[in-house]
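User: Here's a protein and a ligand (D-gluconic acid). What would the complex look like?
Assistant: Let me lay out the input and then the predicted complex.
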Amino acid sequence: MTQAQEQVERATRAMPLPRIKDISVIECEPAGSRLTVVKITTDQDGLYGYGCATFTQRADLVKPAVEKYLKPFLLGKTTDRIEDIWQSCYDSSYWRNGPVLNNALSGIDQALWDIKGRQAGMPVYQLAGGKCREAVDAYAHADGAEYAEVIDNAKKFMAQGFRNVRVQVGVPGMAGYGAQHGEDHTLKPLHNKPLFEPAYAMRRGLKLLETARKELGEEVNLLHDMHERLTPNEAVMFCKEAEQYNMFFLEDPLSPEDLGYFQQIRQNCATPIAMGELFNSPHEWQPLIEGRLIDYIRVHLSEAGGFTPSRKIAILAEMYGVKTAWHGPGDVSPVGHMANVTLDIVSYNFGIQEYTPFNETTQEIFRGCPVLKNGYLWVNEKPGWGIEIDEQAAAKYPFRQSANGLNGGWGEIRKLDGTVIKQ
Ligand code: GCO
Ligand code: MG
């Protein structure tokens, strides 16, 4: 053994392994979404970590999943074996891959990465191999009830330096993903719930893409979220029609229940397709990636079980020429956003990052959020995720009573005849 090797050996032996002393759950609602973050405290002074476990529609269920099941399983274990802990937690419920359990597991997983980074004195991106780009190209959301409003908003984002803009328009009288649109008394639904008719939305959506391409020019990258609301055949038609507008991607044309239709989209057009924010099982992303049926994998990191499994998805996708576009809406905590940006910056096959601004309250609670400059997101250079949480500030913004009385859950949306439709 050389002298240098001996030194490393001695240093490693001397370094006591941190053990998990406590696991707690921080909940807050600083900006309209119920955010859940897991904190792992170790037996070493000042060594702890945070992980995003946000599942806003069933937020109250994640905390007990962590406290009643993962905490007793993990107390006293060393923090250094992230893969081993991930696999053993995953397996310990026997039935797995649900959103509550995967989010709970993500909270643990990301907190362990944070701890490892803090131990090493390095940001997590260094532990994952280091940067392969300087910053992360992001897209902003331009919404509006009418076309002109969407275009105005898109222009504002472009003026701020965004090269990529997602456009969503409302449908008169209907509930819409991205943009609501008042009343239309000619519609006469057979119920008094929020209304949605796929065919109307399809016509509005295509008109919007045509208008956006005409008004915003050839250079800007246009994106659009279909939010799994059309019928499979309408989705095929939509993607085919949209080909002429040269989209950056169309997102979620189909629901996870209709994955079998992706083949038809592929056979009919070359419109780039992004999919995956609702996925929580390898059975969902694996065939789409291996079949080269999508262009962007769009998993919500915590829904898939955290940083560890998502990194594997990125690597699998790279082998098949599929790029990443991790889900980055308001119902991801800043810790989760930092995990997104970390994966973006280390993955060769990074595609694009969805951007959501952090309001002042969010930044008061979460110190060290990713920073946006000129349409690019920048990773934090501090150890771990580089984020500190002010728990006292978080306590000032507890989960609020939601207007629909559903505790964060979504209500129903129905067609004219009263049939329930996907959100
Ligand atoms: C997106 C998404 C979200 C989801 C939301 C659900 O692409 O950003 O579709 O806005 O609707 O995360 O809670
Ligand atoms: Mg979406």
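Summary: The first strand starts at residue 20 and ends at 28.
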